[in-house]
Amino acid sequence: MGNNIPPFLSHPCRQSCLNLKREMDSLYKKLLTYSYNIVGSYEDAKDLVQDALEKYVGVDESTVLNKENYLTRSVINHSLNFKKQICRQSKYGVWLPEPVPTETPDAGLIKENVARYSLLVLMEKLTPRERAVFILKEAFDYSHEEIAGLLNISTYNSRKLLSRSKKALHQPAMRHAIHNRKIVASYIEAITSGNVKELEKLLTEDVKVYADGGSKVKVIGESVTGRTATVQLLLLVYNQYQSNYTCRIHFFNHEPAVCFFDKHKMVICQILHIRENKVAGLYAILDVAKLPLITR
């Protein structure tokens, strides 16, 4: 994990932030994971945690009963306010979260507490407060009493917010599924060989495809539903745009991804949500600002 201290800060403040981060390395990862799960952007989460640490440097510690609770509350509130202010359904089309690698030991986050990608997408349906309660309870196993204290709500409201979030998501918990690479390998083989029948077998009837090209890349079929339409789209896109790239399997947010590389640079990342050994969701990220810095 880098220092991540903004260069424009004065030297004493930079050093104080660095010392605090070193002192609380494990808490820093927890704070970053809280924020990332709430805002869906790793880079924004780093900025929000950094801002909370900078503000804490100026606090009289004799007035703070519990440093961890203080910083947790600060980061969560920063993240909630950020989420309220930013309209994620951007003017250029579909917005997808920034993926983080979960196949490596350390990405600066607590890997096991990172929401799987398909769930992170679904959580865009929730209000920021519903999202925070869901994450604190399901990912970090906070009690409703602890959540109430952090969010300044009653335990009754905490339970109601959790109930509403689960109902909206149709998700009982933040379980991380174990996926067989053979399914992903079969998907790649079907796409690259143009095998329509095999590709149809690998997709659920109600499969959904979402594509985020950012403000610079125009995507074909940014939102498609259904097996037949998805097969047509995937083969069209591969033949016209992807056939000259090499591809590899990686894992982001606990779900497999087919990553296309132009030489050593990732240019497309397709994250697959697999349900009962079939692809039920496909999230295509073409926005270079969100593509993970992984070399082939």
Can you characterise this structure?
- This protein is 47% helix and 16% strand.
- With 296 residues, the chain is an alpha+beta fold.
- A hairpin with a 2-residue loop joins β3 and β4 (255-262).
- Residues 5-10 have low confidence and may be disordered.
- One of its GO terms (molecular function) is sigma factor activity.
- Residues 119-169 form the RNA polymerase sigma factor 70 region 4 type domain.
- InterPro entries: ECF_Sigma-70_Domain, NTF2-like_dom_sf, RNA_pol_sigma70_r4_t2, RNA_pol_sigma_r2, RNA_pol_sigma_r3/r4-like, WH-like_DNA-bd_sf.
- It comes from Niastella caeni.
Structural class: alpha+beta
Identify the CATH homologous superfamily of the largest domain. PhyR, sigma-like (SL) domain
> Can you give the helix content as a percent range?
40-55%
**How many runs of DSSP E, i.e. beta strands?**
6
Write down the secondary-structure element order: HHHHHHHHHHEEHEEEE
Distance between the termini: 22 Å
Spans with pLDDT under 50 lasting ≥5 residues?
Answer: 5-10
The general outline is globular
Give the strand order, joined by hyphens, for the main sheet. 2-1-6-5-4-3
Average pLDDT for all residues: 87
Number of domains: 2
Major pleated sheet: 6 strands, mixed
CATH architecture of the largest domain: Up-down Bundle
Per CATH, the class of the largest domain reads Mainly Alpha
The percent range for strand residues is 15-25%
CA-atom Rg in angstroms:
20 Å
Reported by name, the CATH topology of the largest domain is Butyryl-CoA Dehydrogenase, subunit A, domain 3
Quaternary structure type? single chain
Total helix count?
Answer: 11
Pfam family, one: Sigma70_r4_2
Protein name: RNA polymerase subunit sigma-24
GO biological process, one term: DNA-templated transcription initiation
Organism: Niastella caeni
